[in-house]
Amino acid sequence: MFSEVASSSPLLRNLNPEQLAAVTLPNTHALILAGAGSGKTRVLTTRIAWLLQTGQVSPGGILAVTFTNKAAKEMMVRLSSMLPVNVRGMWIGTFHGLCNRFLRAHYKLANLPSTFQILDTQDQLSAIKRLCKQFNIDDERFPPKQLMWFIAGCKEDGQRAKDVVVRDEETRKKAEIYALYEEQCQREGVVDFGELMLRSYELLRDNAPVREHYQRRFRHILIDEFQDTNKLQYAWIKMLAGQGDAAAAGTHAMPGGSVVAVGDDDQSIYAFRGARVGNMADFVREFDVQQQIKLERNYRSFGNILDSANELISHNSKRLGKNLRTEAGPGEPVRVFEATSDFAEAQWFVDEVRQLVRDGTERKEIALLYRSNAQSRVMETALFNNAIPYRVYGGLRFFERAEIKHALAYLRLMDNPHDDTSFMRIVNFPPRGIGMRSIEQLQDVARAAGCSLHDAVSAVSGKAGTNLGAFVAKLDVLREQTPGLSLREIIELVLQHSGLEEHYKLDKEGQDRLENLGELVNAAESFVSLEGFGRDAVALPIDELGVALRQSPASQGLDPSAPLGNELLPELLAPNQETGETLSPLAAFLTHAALESGDNQAQAGQDAVQLMTVHSSKGLEFDCVFISGLEDGIFPHENSLSDAGGIEEERRLMYVAITRARKRLYLTHSQTRMLHGQTRYNLKSRFFDELPEAALKWITPKNRGFAQAYGGNSGTWGASNSGAGGARGDWAAAAFASRKPVGETFANPVVPPQRNAPAHGLKTGMEVFHAKFGEGRVMMLEGSGDDARAQINFTRHGVKWLALSVAKLTVV
């Protein structure tokens, strides 16, 4: 039968049997389980075109719901190319877009002005702040962001302020604020995103003629990404299909209509946004779905990749169940690499990227996926140091993220209180009651006196002067607490006492930002090690360093009468290779952060390696995919380890990550990783035990010892790889060993090079590698022992003189 249908319509040619069955479904409710890479968008679009071409429905009788505007536009473009129809008049769009269209048509019934405006998230937050100010609501007890999330959560559950179940005084107060917010929005003629959905739902529920009109009109309802729907969105769909609350009250579904839901319960990864994977099972039960079609043929990946995905996800319970398959053959095995440290993992990734590019792979077809944003920092540094262009997809590079820039602004003011740019960034962050009027007053005083904003604070009077004075006093107290502290300790002090940590702890989505702030501590710890400072080097600026040293010379191991400046030991101060000046660890780190945030950013259209979280990767595909940080506590995330539902969500996330790869898939984990400035010893992810051994290739021996991990004494990774990989493996292992981890020890540890070793082994003309400056050629050597230095011409950074007792150089 299907072959006859296919031959009768050009639309249906080249569809596989499952796709053909989905496209030509009879007029009944159905669920299409569409696996990753199975041609879901093609099936949805072709079904709409087939319904129109066969005369089963007019363009106005179809409602197609997508989750992104991009998907809706793509669907309309494809339809326009298939059929000579005007797609602009069709109801194809996102939930919010369609609800906006519905309310514009029925604004009077919805009790809205014809010109009602939509509040985006920032506008909504501003509106709540105005409300709090007007009614003297304590914004410390009820932070505006928390109120916004409370209101959004209530609306997603279909609750008005009067419907909120009051269990305690705090909930009662929030419900009162919710009611005041509703009155304010109604008075101003504005709606937020949640209101678009809720008011549309209520209008359908409470107005029988309108509801019946749309039930008669939309004979075919198609919903994409059904696994990502929340409670209210599903209720809205049921109302249009006659399965909602009104049906229970005596209204029945209009005969002849159909709802076709398309989704993949194995790719439901947005529970934190309110997505409810259980909606798929509820749909099957409540709509009495008799037609379930599984799109299992994958057109994206090779067999070993799909076998890994299938085996992994089979460990989840309550699945609707499907298995991806391909006719492309098994392809290459899934490569597994175990590193000794996060540094070694990053350097191996860089080496592998170089080899892939040499073999003809475009950089834009190489993707690095990680569980949380904080993991990108080490990888970004490795790519930056090796001059490999990269782009952070769907987010900002590490040193450009707002929370990092806030923390760095505090550190810059510790180093230089006259930095007006940093002062302006954090003078009211976290919020401390300093408004624009106060800042303008301060700027006027500073301009008249010809001084910095910091110095002008004492001349500002009134409430503005009091609040500004309190801010400057906080900075002064922080600065007074820093003498004798290392860079890591100063950053930890700033994060705690600036209020940044507390601010993000109260943020519903602040966990990611807190992890990034913790990674800033790691960045500092790595920096002082790689730049030749001692791990506990005093981080004060030079002019204050002398005071600190003379106050406690013995603690630094120095003669109190020793001169300060360029004569200080390298552990305390390091030469700036650009100018010859001596920088403190704090100043050097701030310079490093500024340079790294502003360089190596891929330009639009440039061939660049793609970095992203797994969540951001959904819907994308690449020839080569690296999934990094596969350790328990990282992936799966530590927040999920005590909850079965959480582990299943993490497993779905891993399934999404695996199925992004077309040709090559790499899985990497590390024996040690720096977290919050401390070296942690990690167990490899439990997900490795759920992958098929036949599909895997262990690049490093499975369950081997520490020394063999990456450039160890017995059996280095570099021995089996051509080029510079082995040498850089030795560098990475040495860099890790130099961090002096505490606790567990391993057999045959890698011995780092001694910084006082007189025999550096370098010769003129040798190719060398430096962690910061990359590859270079030795031009000249002079001195011996601790005084030995080399002139090196670096490909990217030019000619530099490096002290060999400080610089970590590896012969390539």
Give an overview in words.
- The structure is a single chain.
- 42% of the residues lie in helices and 14% in strands.
- The protein is globular, with a radius of gyration of 31 Å.
- The protein has 30 helices and 24 strands.
- It starts with a helix and ends with a strand.
- It is of the alpha/beta class.
- Strands 11-14-10-15-16-9-19 form a 7-stranded parallel β-sheet. Strands 3-2-6-7-1-8 form a 6-stranded parallel β-sheet, sandwiched between helices. Strands 23-22-21-20-24 form a 5-stranded antiparallel β-sheet, covered by helices on one side.
- Strand 22 and strand 23 (798-803) form a beta hairpin.
- Helix 3 (40-53) crosses helix 4, helix 15 (342-358) runs antiparallel to helix 30 and helix 22 (487-497) runs antiparallel to helix 24.
- The chain folds into 5 domains: 2-107 and 196-297, P-loop containing nucleotide triphosphate hydrolases (Rossmann fold); 117-188, Arc Repressor Mutant, subunit A; 334-397 and 607-737, P-loop containing nucleotide triphosphate hydrolases (Rossmann fold); 399-547 and 570-598, Orthogonal Bundle (PCRA, domain 4), CATH 1.10.486; 767-811.
- The longest helix is centred in the N-terminal third of the chain and has 20 residues, at 169-188.
- It catalyses: ATP + H2O = ADP + phosphate + H(+); Couples ATP hydrolysis with the unwinding of duplex DNA by translocating in the 3'-5' direction.
- It holds the Pfam family PcrA_UvrD_tudor.
- Its EC number is 5.6.2.4.
- ATP binds at residues 34-41.
- Keywords: ATP-binding, DNA-binding, Helicase, Hydrolase, Isomerase, Nucleotide-binding.
